[in-house]
């Protein structure tokens, strides 16, 4: 009986010892620190860095494309206002978009009514210097120059309202002049804009009809002119007939 009690007590102690060992192991696993990686940055930071770099590259490329697009749309923008280049580089010439130059049939505009729209561009590869300003002037048939407007050097269009012109305009052909701050007779310089005078426009005006009442105007003078002409020809025809009959009588008498 005593032996059984000792055996049962040893069995209970063994079970308690086993339970305490399992609990100690579990507690050790919970408290033990996580091993530190040799990589100083977490693995999740790599995609963030790559995304940041990619975003930066995309922003730079988009900014560059926007600058290129702006320069392509407006060849006058984004360039120095003064520079010198080699003599083997040609000057830049103006290209008209509206209206199209036509020396044979120039575009017509009515004085006091029309609004002239002028639009131009230039070759961005040839134009290397941005004008400080552009003057749009017109030379009338008597070679007198009228300044229509002065725009910024990056402008590509201008408007001239013929209804608000202070200077009286005559009917005829006008030469449109476009030049930068150097004037209309600037010497050709490499990379600079050449003065342009190839566009010709025609201005006209209409007047109300005014009836004539002077003594030199006679609308009914030629009424019945045919009858008066016939009556004036009758004496000539009569004289010619008498002369022919007389000649015939003389010839007959001579032949007999």
Structural features, described:
With 256 residues, the chain is an alpha+beta fold. It has a domain at 94-204: Immunoglobulin-like (Sandwich). The protein has helices spanning 2-31, 45-73, 225-255; strands at 94-98, 108-110, 115-122, 133-139, 145-152, 157-161, 172-179, 196-204. The strands form two sheets. The chain has a five-stranded mixed sheet with strand order 2-8-7-4-5, with no helix packed on it. A three-stranded antiparallel sheet has the order 1-3-6, with no helix packed on it.
List keywords for this structure.
5-stranded mixed beta sheet, single chain, 3 helices, Immunoglobulin-like, elongated, 256 residues, alpha+beta
Brief write-up:
By secondary structure, the chain is α+β, with helices and mostly antiparallel strands. The protein is 35% helix and 21% strand. It has a domain at 94-204: Immunoglobulin-like (Sandwich), CATH 2.60.40.
Largest sheet: 5 strands, mixed
Return the CATH class of the domain at 94-204: Mainly Beta
3D shape: elongated
Which secondary-structure class do the elements indicate? alpha+beta
**Helix and strand pattern:** HHEEEEEEEEH
Question: What's the end-to-end separation, in Å?
Answer: 210 Å
CATH topology heading of the domain at 94-204: Immunoglobulin-like
What is the residue-averaged pLDDT? 78
Low-confidence regions: 31-57, 61-70
- Please list the strands of the largest sheet in the order they lie side by side: 2-8-7-4-5
Classify the beta-strand content into a percent band: 15-25%
Q: Tally the helices: what do you get? A: 3
Radius of gyration: 52 Å
Helix content: 25-40%
CATH architecture of the domain at 94-204: Sandwich
């Amino acid at each position: 009986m005593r032996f059984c009690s000792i055996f049962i007590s040893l069995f209970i102690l063994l079970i308690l010892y086993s339970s305490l060992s399992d609990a100690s192991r579990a507690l050790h696993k919970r408290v033990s620190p996580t091993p530190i990686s040799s990589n100083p940055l977490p693995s999740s930071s790599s995609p963030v860095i790559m995304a940041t770099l990619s975003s930066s590259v995309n922003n730079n490329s988009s900014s560059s494309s926007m600058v290129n697009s702006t320069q392509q749309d407006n060849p006058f923008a984004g360039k120095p206002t003064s520079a010198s280049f080699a003599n083997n580089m040609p000057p830049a010439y103006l290209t008209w978009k509206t209206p199209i130059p036509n020396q044979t049939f120039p575009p017509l505009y009515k004085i006091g009514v029309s609004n002239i729209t002028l639009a131009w561009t230039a070759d961005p590869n040839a134009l290397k210097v941005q004008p400080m300003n552009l003057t749009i002037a017109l030379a009338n048939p008597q070679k007198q120059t009228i300044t229509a407007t002065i725009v910024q050097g990056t402008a590509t269009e201008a408007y001239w309202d013929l209804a608000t012109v202070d200077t009286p305009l005559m009917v005829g052909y006008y030469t449109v002049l476009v030049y930068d701050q150097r004037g209309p007779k600037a010497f050709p310089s490499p990379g600079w804009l050449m003065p342009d005078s190839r566009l010709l426009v025609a201005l006209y005006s209409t007047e109300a009809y005014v009836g004539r009442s002077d003594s030199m105007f006679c609308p009914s003078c030629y009424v019945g002119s045919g009858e008066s002409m016939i009556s004036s020809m009758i004496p000539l025809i009569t004289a010619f007939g008498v002369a022919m009959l007389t000649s015939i009588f003389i010839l007959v008498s001579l032949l007999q």
